[in-house]
Amino acid sequence: MSQQQEISALKKFVRATNFLATSQIYLKKNVLHKRALAHTDIKPRLLGHWGTCPGINFVYANINRLIVKNNRSFVYLVGPGHGFPAVQANLFMEGSLSHYYPDIIPYNEEGITDICQKFSAAYGYPSHANPEAPGQILEGGELGYSLSVAWGAVLDNPDLIAACLIGDGESETGPLAASWYANRLVDPATNGAVLPIVHINGYKISGPTRMGRMSHEELDLEFRGLGYHPIIVDDELEEDVYVQMANAMDTSYEMINDIQKRARSGEDIVKPRWPVILMRTAKGWTGTSEYNGKKLEGNCESHQVIVNKCATDKGHLEALNTWLSSYKFDELYTINDKGELIFDKEIQSLLPPKQLTCGQQHLSYGGEVVRALANPDLSKLAYGAETPRGTRGVSMYKMGEWMRDAMKLNRDQRNLRIFSPDETYSNQLQAVFEETDRAWQWPIEEWDEDMARDGRVIELLSENLLFGMMHGYTVTGRHAMFPTYEAFSQVVSSMADQYCKYVYASQGVHFRKPVPSCNVVLSSLLERQDHNGYSHQNPSFLGAMLEKHPKIISAYLPADGNSTLVYTERAYADRDKLNIIVAGKKDLPQWLSLDEARQQTKDGVMVWDFASDENPDVVLVGCGDYVTQEAMAALVLIREILPRVRIRFVSVTELTSSGLGSLDFQSKPWLMDEVFTADKGVVFNYHGYPNTIKKLVFDYKGSDRFRIKGYEEEGSTTTPFDMGVRNGTSRYHLVIDMAYKLFQQGVIDETQHVAITTDMLQRLVDHRNYIKANGVDPISLDNWVWTR
């Protein structure tokens, strides 16, 4: 096919999809525009965003041209917000909608009526890309994530090209700005490629964009400085913009092939200069150019629904009628004897084979390509049964060893990665570097450690970029971990929320299969951020995520190293989940054998018999590793003071938004009674904010017996033990609370209660004086030995 024929086909294709996108925004009847519009054809409520749709259609058609020409797999990510009418128009044209929804959206006028009537309607189709739509791997409700997700999707998919359309408004967000740095991380020898296309239509919802007011020279300098090869397409240049774009796409494809071929032939490609297309077309291109003296096309006024009173205003209706007529949609199709639409032959020339259409790209359905991990043998990694209780060890060391062995076992599968914001060493995961390296495509100096072109650890100091890459990696069927400092995980709270919404919405879609879990590891925990100070003390992410759907979110707070190993194994076996593992990176007592840890993870709550008495007078609970250490120390201390008091120790290691582990106390309250007794006082020492636990037990009839301790937003640069003191989670505070519960229940008298409280308060005063004088905690605080 000659270029002239290709350009003619592209123009027809874009005319068709622009018509279908416009029809979805406005029409409920007469969707093929067979007659002049009437007010009764218009939806009663007009919603949607027209301004970005023409650019999405223009790029989609050009991607189709490359697929047909080169027989290559593409996935198309749409970053600009609320452009779904355009995406859906193309999914209809290529046949993906009728393939997956044959009874609802057949390839005829009835199918077009469905997508028009249901777009942005109650129980219909959203205004942004979503999991219900074929081929989509990004919940497009929030701007800024498209490019990072695209980079994640192409990792370990060497034949895939992710074409990513980025809005110039979207490009102003922090996550998107950081995503340009991923070119430093992706090895062209073993991974696919991303083709970023920045749509510079000049305007956001109510004002200009930064890029829209930049000159060609400024744009060129910016992207060359970021390490890319910019190619500018501009509808104001003399050459036809369709010709410009076709040439730009061909050039980009040739550059990608050249980089990959050279890298795969053994050449060390330093700073691969990937192409980026900077595409200037008018916002609202081909729509109503102006109305009533107001400029619409090429202005922010075209961002949403223009001429939006068509249901009642004659002038608006006439403008829409003229607009739809301009596409001459009736010239682009015929209807066969089965009622199916048969598009013009030139349009058909741009329709890829079904298996290569963007909507039927098999990688976008994750679960169809999932390969389960080969798991390490935990018995070779765990602290053995012969290890005395209370022996000290580091949970994150154990997780690092598990990841090392998992990477070795799955080396040939290439289906496991770590996305770490520059903190792999800091979070004590360095055992992985016995098996792999950190990926780095820029120069590597001889003194750099653990860095290589093809490392399995993706490390850069941007939580946004790396979480987005993990999203793209997991929803396309692979396994990943995102370890980060607990205090700064809030940076990706909204991204995690969007991921959860994507996964939850996917579960109701018949053609989507379960995808591997997204595993967030929180370390550098608040209890040991004493040296970094108040700014590093923040468990907010944990509480925020526990507001989400219980089927999607699980928070694991293992009490020790063996529990951490078991929960790591479990997290990677999960599907359609976001798991949070909270584990310390400092020396802590080890409490459970491997068998005991496995037993506890079945329910996420367990009475530790080795630390408990029959018929207890009071219940003590630990939820989190550092606070469990303090709870066990309090247990030893109160038994020294009150040797006849009977105590039950409960460990909670799993939380969801519906409760503590598997305890369904809303429908089966006796389960809570069995664990926490029916009438005894409970002192609950929790790693995060107390309100998180208070909300979880609120509906339990015995919740008034609970005294919940946790982070009270008190902290500073201090000593480790003093962090617990400041927030009331220290062993001394726990003894005070248990004594009060025992006094309330009549187990001890007032004299004993006052004496114990006075003793503990004095110890707290003595502690404060000691650390102010010496700058460190007394050695005795960590040197206590578990005895029973």
Topology, pairings included?
Layout: H1 3-26, H2 53-70, E1 74-78, H3 84-94, H4 96-100, H5 109-118, H6 146-154, E2 161-167, H7 174-179, E3 193-199, H8 216-225, E4 229-234, H9 241-264, E5 275-280, E6 290-291, E7 294-295, H10 314-325, E8 333-335, E9 341-343, H11 345-348, E10 392-393, H12 395-409, E11 416-420, E12 438-439, E13 451-452, E14 457-459, H13 463-475, E15 479-485, H14 493-506, E16 518-523, H15 540-545, E17 553-556, H16 561-573, E18 578-582, E19 588-589, H17 594-603, E20 605-607, E21 618-623, H18 625-641, E22 647-652, E23 654-656, E24 659-660, H19 669-676, E25 681-686, H20 690-697, E26 706-709, H21 720-727, H22 731-744, H23 750-774
Parallel strand pairs: 1-2, 2-3, 3-5, 4-5, 11-14, 11-15, 12-13, 15-16, 16-18, 17-18, 21-22, 21-25, 25-26
Antiparallel strand pairs: 6-7, 8-9, 10-19, 17-23, 20-22, 23-24
Protein name: Phosphoketolase family protein
GO molecular function: aldehyde-lyase activity
InterPro entries: THDP-binding, Transketo_C/PFOR_II, Xul5P/Fru6P_PKetolase, Xul5P/Fru6P_PKetolase_C, Xul5P/Fru6P_PKetolase_CS, Xul5P/Fru6P_PKetolase_N, Xul5P/Fru6P_PKetolase_ThDP_BS
